[in-house]
Here is the input.
Amino acid sequence: MPLAGREVQLTEDQVALIDTVRDFARAELLPLDRKCDKDESSMVEALPQVSRMGLMNLTIPEELGGLGCEYRTYVAILHELAYASPSMAVTISVHSMVGAILAKLAEEPFRSEWLSAWGTPESFAAFALSEANAGSDAAAVAATAVKADGGYRITGEKMWITNGMKARWFLTLARLDGAPQGEDLCAFLVDGNENSAAIQRTHVHGKMGIRGSETAVIAYDDAFAPESHMIGKPGEGLKVFLSTLNEGRIGIGTQASGIAEACLDEMAAYAKQRVQFGRPIAKFQAVANMIAESALMLEAAKALIWCAAEKLDAGRPDRVASSMAKLYATEAANRIAYHAVQVHGGSGYVNEYRVEQLYRDARVTTIYEGTSEVQRILIARELAQHL
Ligand SMILES: Cc1cc2nc3c(=O)[nH]c(=O)nc-3n(C[C@H](O)[C@H](O)[C@H](O)COP(=O)(O)OP(=O)(O)OC[C@H]3O[C@@H](n4cnc5c(N)ncnc54)[C@H](O)[C@@H]3O)c2cc1C
Here is the structure.
């Protein structure tokens, strides 16, 4: 089942691209994702294939060599990636968010230089905001940048950095030493290649889910960023990071909708073939109800995502719409994954069946890119302004 609304709003070319991604993701990425879940290896090994299909370059403007996709096409593609590999979906979502920030805010000629190579694994990017004591409270970061000859020297430790083990680019939030408090947060594009000795990457092992996605602790010890690599103005660092809030939240909502759809398909197929009391369990009303409720929640999630993406495409980004899409889709995916395991009975509790993994993969979606609690606060705060 496609992402709600797409049939009437997308061109034939866009639908063909989405269909191609679906076929590729289910044939190539799904088996690899299952393997990565088992042995904690990285889906990044599939990046060359993903890059050849243009999927690292989806939202980069065409004049810079990207596909220049509208947001609706982007989420429809991300949904297909997430259906087959929730780990690859978050990998691409994070890389795309950094690209979107540079497309919006980096200055020429650097913007063209960086983004013209964005579609290649050599330009793989990470979004380095969180720290041990700065999670929901992002403004609490402690990493520091000290002015040096021709640029800045950055020291500090970032936690939970998706794509962190292999990324070349780290969009990094740090506090400018000596600047007045409140005007000191700055965003830097740090080159991991140039700073290989100054950046230590430590793989976070033992994750509950999305085990094929790389998560790393990144320790900067005097990493150098030239002046031209400061994105935005001094003091605007958090604003730079938050400038892709809508895209990021819709992206994680879409990761959740892909997981949810995979769960729905798995539970419906299992319910049709599993026989108890002489009939397929799908014939029992209690089981049919779980399937129906899951299908309803999935459609509602897709509609909220589509609505938020439509607003972005129309140049009217809407924070409430993006937060609602993220909040609802991620909570729904967890509920749907719960139903999927329940419908499988004992079989759903072992990793031979995919729903066991999907249940674990869904869990993180209500945590990163702003927890569900934070989304509720943001929605209520925005609405309060209009009461
Ligand atoms: C697998 C994974 C990948 C990640 N990838 C990245 C990445 O690429 N880049 C990056 O920068 N970060 C990344 N993160 C970090 C993620 O964004 C944070 O984990 C998230 O923002 C929550 O922060 P925290 O873990 O510090 O939890 P905390 O902020 O400590 O929250 C703990 C609990 O308290 C609640 N809480 C906190 N403040 C409030 C409040 N004001 N009101 C009500 N409840 C509140 C939260 O909702 C939550 O339930 C990743 C995390 C994970 C697990």
